[in-house]
Amino acid sequence: MSLEIQNLHVRVEDKEILKGVDLSVSKGETHALMGPNGSGKSTLANTIMGNPNYVVTEGKVLLNGEDLTEAAPDERARAGLFLAFQYPATIPGVSVANFLRTAVNAGRDEPLRVMDFGKLLRQNMELLKIDPAFNKRYLNEGFSGGEKKRAEILQMAMLEPEIAVLDETDSGLDIDALRIVSEGVNALRGPNAGFLVITHYTRILRYVLPDFVHIMLNGRIVREGGSELADDLEEKGYDFIREEVEAGAA
Fold it and tell me: Concatenated DSSP letters for 125-151?
């Protein structure tokens, strides 16, 4: 059970952003995708979920062997993919609980009974240490950065995706919010889900320890390794990767 990205080339308008990306994320694994701003990380996240603004010109997106390259975003979500956004949308007038119930039932042949949904929601909120009053607030309206990301993690817990992509979930969080969100991600890790954590900082990886680290530069994954690779980046920055790539191209 895995997400397979094969030789993926993607353009936005007339500019090619991804230039042949290969990546595999299996259930039970946590991968970190790192790179400086503009390297193509968020383009990959949006392409995985089928954002129509990102045009695949070559390559494939596969989930459990099924080709999803041309699938609509809702089809990908029902197949088992999930994307936590860098900047989650605000939906005034729609409570967190109602939003989650709609999202959960959209992926089911028969909707959950109200009592069953309530029980599942309470269980996940306890797991993630979220105040029950959170349910009644309108989705992301007046939320702090940490509350918005916590709502995303709660949605992920309720939907139980096979592969979750976290696009710069640590963006804009103070240290306390980062710790809370990381604890939520760690609570959901296990053999039934795979994670792709996209970031250009190493700080979230102090809390969510990855099994594999991939470095992206200029639309390509140029270096792969274990969690020690993130430690190298913390010490040396991205310049040593750039120098290695330039030396290899010479």
Answer: HHHTT--GGGGGSEETTT--HHHHHHH
128: nearest Cα among 209, 185, 82: 185
Instruction: Return d(Cα 23, Cα 3) in angstroms, integer.
Output: 8
Mean pLDDT by 10 residues, the chain (250 residues): 94 94 96 92 95 96 96 94 87 94 90 94 88 91 86 91 90 80 86 92 89 95 93 86 75
Q: Which long-range contacts (CB under 8 A, 24 or more apart) does 95-98 make?
A: 95/135, 95/136, 95/137, 95/138, 95/139, 96/134, 96/135, 96/136, 96/137, 96/138, 96/139, 96/151, 96/154, 97/121, 97/135, 97/136
DSSP per-residue letters across 182-233: HHHHHHH-BTTBEEEEEES-SGGGGTS--SEEEEEETTEEEEEESTHHHHHH
The verdict on domain 2-92+162-235 having CATH code 3.60.120.10 is no
Residues 63, 25 contacting (CB under 8 angstroms): no
Residue given tokens 């694994």 in the structure block:
29
Chain centre distance of CA 185:
11
Bridging pattern class, strands 55-63 and 66-67: antiparallel
Cα 74 from Cα 109, distance rounded (Å)? 14
Using DSSP's 3-state secondary structure scheme, residue 80 falls into: coil
